[in-house]
Amino acid sequence: MPMQVTVPDNVPPELVVDFDYFAVDGSNGDPQATWKKLHDGPDIVWTPHYGGHWIATRAAEFDVMQIDHAHFSHRQFDLPRNPNRIPSVPLGLDPPEHTPYRRLLMTAFTPRKIRAFAEVAEHTAKDLIAELKPRGECEFIDEFAKVLPINVFLTMMGLPLDDRAYLLPLAEIAVHSNDVALKTKTQQELAGYLLGHIEQRRAAGPAEDLLSTIVHGEIEGRPLTPPEILSMSLLALVGGLDTVASQLGFVANFLAKNPGHRRELVENPRLIPTACEEFLRRFGLPNTLRELTMDYAYKGLQFRKNDLIMLPKCLYGLDDRINADPMTVDFHRKPSTIKHAAFGAGPHLCPGNVLARRELMIFLEEWLPAIPDFELDPERPPVFTSGGVNSVSKLYLKWKV
Which residues, other chains included, contact 224 with Cβ-Cβ below 8 Å and sequence gap of 6+? Predict the structure, then answer.
């Protein structure tokens, strides 16, 4: 048994699986398909990795656990457990405590601000494509997928674009490493980076950017405390540097292998909004957890207080009980029938989901007319990683000039 963890007596032996979410096999070019194999077994399973935790595999469980915070708390949302982690506000809070902090964050995502950030994304995409197109090749993740969203995010935060090269490797560790000591060191380094900018914002007075909004923010009639300011800023920083880049990587990887789908979008750009939802459904990213607040009987199982249960978002979109033929990417599904949990649900719905969708659409709107025919470099296959987020870490593309 991995890591020599004793199976607790509340775990039926037939539910035990050897599944390490940091080691999901992507050698087939489709790590979500590896996750999908869990649908061949029970709706809820248990793995001994990282101290042992449950995994919910079906959408029906997600629909309950994402909103029933009385039993399934968001206070422990990733693994391995790290007692030295800086508390995450508001991600690690449950309603009603969570609500005022989220309300403050949402002021960064008004329609006016999203339009402004979308313009940054559009200009960035155009500039990058103009630079890459004459070369006939690129490493898509580092040269496009990471650059577009981080330019948007640093603009949103009011941080220097020149800090991109420093921040991206740290964000990679924060999201993808299972080394607790390294993650703690990285978090402390990011916190040190932020503290200098927080002091600058405090001295400068209120401004439009998100970091300033946090520094000068109030909840329930009181200013945020210094630990709250640091925690919220750190959450925004890490959360904004990885997920959109990963989603762009999976989309580009799919389109590089499927010329028919590329042609559909080139010839009928009106399909792009539906295509975005379909990509979000088919290539889910986050793998978050909930912690049991008490002993709880659920569908014949006896959960124990402090048990952890993982909700791999890709398994929601790939559930054939709610999405017909879920492994097939179909741009002609009715939008109302495309069901996914790419951005979570309930009180912890991702605040930036509208902006993330817009960035994905901008990529398709700008890249496909300029570089309609591209393929994977057969000499350099894609590299996939897993953990808190399913990701493409390297994607080598080629096209004729």
Answer: 214, 215, 217, 218, 232
